Amino acid sequence: MGKKKWCFGREDVICMTKDCKYMSDCVQAVWQKKMARLVQKGRVDGTGTLPKLKSKLKKEERALKKSARSVSSENPR
Fold first, then answer.
1. Which of 64, 59, 40 minimizes the C-alpha distance to 50?
2. CA-CA distance, 26 to 3, in Å (whole number)?
3. Could you report the per-residue pLDDT of 12-56, keeping only the tens digit for each?
């Protein structure tokens, strides 16, 4: 395989190219990164099952977004 695209394996970029020859490998790489992060977080927290861990992570992400919004609304430009 040749040089991969700049966006290969990035979680913050959504591939909209239907004929990308790296799409299946890219999706697999992103999935492995996310699962590794979940498993690592589970080892640290010791929460147990993946569904519980996923919901806990989603709650944390929502709280971070909410706090970021409140900080930006308090300090308008």
1. 40
2. 13
3. 777 777 788 888 888 888 889 888 887 777 666 665 676 777 777
Residue with tokens 């996923």, as numbered in its chain: 54
- Helix, strand, coil percentages, rounded to 5, for the chain: 60, 0, 40
> How far is C-alpha 41 from the chain's CA centre?
13
- Which of 47, 61, 48 is closest to 11 using CA atoms? 61
Total-model pTM: 0.48
Tokens of residue 7, six digits: 């966006």
Report how far residue 22's alpha carbon sits from residue 8's, in angstroms, rounded to the nearest whole number. 8
- Ramachandran quadrant class, 17 (left: phi over 0; alpha: psi -120 to 50; beta: rest): beta
How far apart CA 10 and CA 39 sit, in angstroms, is 19
